[in-house]
């Protein structure tokens, strides 16, 4: 089974979200240091430490997201330390969503979400290019309809 990787642009998109989310508390901590008390360096320092850890973590997370279209199953893999492997038979696919938020659209990315009758077997593949997501959606729907008609 050869897994295909998601786009490396997903790293940049997640870094933008992380920078905005952690930049506000870090900036607030730095302002409070100069206006209230030097003890607020703990706030700014802890936020910057978390940011540094996420700079290390996010590329590894994205590198460990992969998917494969097998003969009878769709396979999604995530994680390095805590690995998760979803194997979804095509016949169980009910519908497939392709979504793009404003940030993902700016990077030319989309998220493919696959829905089945059981919520435990749903799968999400983030960070696909828009073209890749649409081709994969079409392929999954066609194979799903083919497998379903054989039941």
Question: What can you see in these coordinates?
Answer:
With 151 residues, this protein is of the alpha+beta class. Helices cover 50% and strands 26% of the residues. It has 4 helices and 7 strands.
By helix and strand content, what is the structural category? Answer: alpha+beta
Radius of gyration: 20 Å
Strand order of the largest sheet: 1-2-3-4
Unreliable spans = none
Distance between the termini: 25 Å
The run of helices and strands is EHHEEEEHEEH
Q: Report on the biggest sheet.
A: 4 strands, antiparallel
Total count of helical runs of at least 4 residues = 4
Q: Which oligomeric state applies?
A: single chain
Amount of beta strand: 25-35%
Indicate the mean pLDDT: 90
Overall geometry comes to elongated
How many distinct beta strands?
Answer: 7
Q: How helix-rich are the residues, as a percent range?
A: 40-55%
Explain the layout of strands and helices.
Elements: E1 4-5, H1 9-35, H2 41-63, E2 66-69, E3 73-78, E4 84-89, E5 93-99, H3 102-106, E6 109-116, E7 123-129, H4 130-149
Antiparallel strand pairs: 1-2, 2-3, 3-4, 5-6, 6-7
Helix pairs in contact: 1-2
């Amino acid at each position: 089974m050869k897994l295909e990787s998601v786009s490396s642009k997903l790293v940049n998109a997640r870094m933008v979200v992380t920078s905005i989310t952690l930049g506000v508390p870090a900036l607030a901590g730095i302002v409070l240091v100069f206006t209230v008390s030097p003890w607020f360096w703990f706030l700014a320092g802890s936020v910057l430490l978390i940011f540094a850890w996420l700079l290390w973590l996010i590329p590894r997370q994205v590198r460990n997201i992969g998917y494969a279209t097998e003969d009878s199953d769709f396979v999604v893999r995530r994680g390095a330390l805590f690995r998760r492997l979803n194997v979804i038979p095509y016949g169980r696919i009910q519908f497939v969503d392709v979504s793009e938020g404003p940030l993902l659209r700016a990077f030319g990315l989309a998220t493919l979400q696959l829905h089945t009758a059981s919520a435990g077997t749903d799968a999400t593949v983030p960070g696909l290019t828009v073209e890749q997501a649409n081709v994969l959606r079409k392929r999954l729907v066609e194979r799903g309809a083919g497998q379903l008609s054989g039941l």
